[in-house]
Amino acid sequence: EVELVVSGGGLVQPGESLRLSCAASGFTFSTSWMTWVRQAPGKGLEWVATIKQDGTEKYYVDSVKGRFSVSRDNARNSLYLQMNSLRAEDTAVYYCARDRSRFDYFDFWGQGSLVTVSS
Amino acid sequence: SYVLTQPPSVSAAPGETAIITCGGNRIGSKSVHWYQQTPGQAPVVVISYDKDRPSGIPERFSGSNSDNTATLTISRVEAGDEADYYCQVWDDNSQYAVFGGGTQLTVL
Description:
By secondary structure, chain A is mostly beta strands.
């Protein structure tokens, strides 16, 4: 059974950093594109970042470019999102999701982790 | 960047048909995927590649895509279908995944 478990969320002040982790199991992580999607409270889904199987290609939404960095450790079956210079508008539930294939749909999602940026 | 437009809300009585649209410039040339999200839960894909139903999704869910509008149709609506629904495409030009704003389906 595919499982994606997100951890690392919490309350931080504006300008601070946070790293989210997504532990994957039940599928071959190293052959899967992976993605982060977020959802601000009461709002819709917003794609954040996508990473290729070997980490050599990464794509980001404009609003996080230069501040967020997606990475992965295939030996640990883990996906990460390093978030720096956090802003109030980054407050959201962050989901990790498996891509069906490159530039495709997201067939499995983790449960999400809430990141709150507030002073 | 590419924009997908959905109606904020749609309602249907049990047994009726609910139709949710997703508008975008020449969306018919893209593959559209639909997700269902109930409160407090992660999204679940209900339609992929315009009209394909993943395993476990009832036949009551169907999709189509042409010209500037993609459509999710839920036949014989049930109370359990009450949820938010999102369309999604990949924009090759910007190399972005794009979601529609979401449609809240209310079962009357």
